[in-house]
Amino acid sequence: MPVQLSHRFAAAVLAATFGVPIAPSAYADPPSWAPAHGWRKKHDPDYVGYTGKKWPDDYGVVSGHCNYEAVGAVVGGAVGGAIGSSVGKGDNKPIAILVGSVVGAVIGAKIGRDIEQQDRSCIAHSLELAQDRTRVTWENPNTGVKYLLTPKSGFEREGLHCRAFELRRSAGGSTETSQGKACQSQEGRWDLVT
User: Fold this and answer.
1) Which helix (H) or strand (E) holds 22?
2) Which of 109, 122, 139, 146 could make a disulfide contact with 104, Cβ separation 3.0–4.6 Å?
3) Please, what is the Cα angle at 84 between 79 and 89, to 5 degrees?
4) DSSP code for 29
């Protein structure tokens, strides 16, 4: 019956038997799909957005969960028409903003009625940073609404970069799903379009 030996034990036996030292195992870089474990913050601190803009923080979007509290700290009292590049001046970090008075018409009356500025920022930052068909979730603790956003493929409209998306809203045992489109009218600003 063959005996299984650990790599270190086998190396020690070979070294003792033949007098040749065996080099210890070297750790390799993680595969491209694995998390960077701090490498990004040291070597490449920015996240490149859909249109090429660099963002210093992804607010969890890249890993599939928008950090609602961190987003709230950034947008704070920002008005609905605030532009992403102007939100978060000073010590705060910028974040993308979703604007548009057609919220109810584009993503459904119920969703449009309950959506808050932090929800808009989670949507916009997901449109900025999430890959096609990557799901991004968050929960609004003020309304109890859970969101699931899935950005879809991009397209051009009148020279603007645009993306289609699916937004699912769950609250009180019911779920509503809608399709929407948004175009980046200015850096960090995504406008809902029909």
Assistant:
1) none
2) 109
3) 85
4) P
DSSP code of residue 26: -
Whole-prediction pTM: 0.69
At 140, the pLDDT band (50, 70, 90 cuts) reads very high
Residues β-bridged to residue 143: none
Q: Which pair of structure tokens corresponds to residue 9? A: 């034990």
Cβ-contact 176, 84 below 8 angstroms = no
Q: Does residue 8 register a pLDDT over 50?
A: yes
Phi, psi at 103, each rounded to 5°: -55, -50
Tokens 């937004």 belong to which residue? 167
Three-state SS at 119:
helix
Residues 6+ apart with CB under 8 A from 106: 100, 112, 178, 180, 181, 192, 193, 194
DSSP string, 35-102: --TTHHHHH---EE-TTS-EES--TTGGGTB--HHHHHHHHTT--TT--TTTTT-TTSPP--EEE-TT
Higher pLDDT among residues 55 and 85, named by residue: 55
Residue-wise pLDDT for 45-76, tens only, equals: 688 888 788 888 999 999 999 999 999 888 87
Length of the chain: 194
CA pair distance 2, 22, nearest whole angstrom: 23
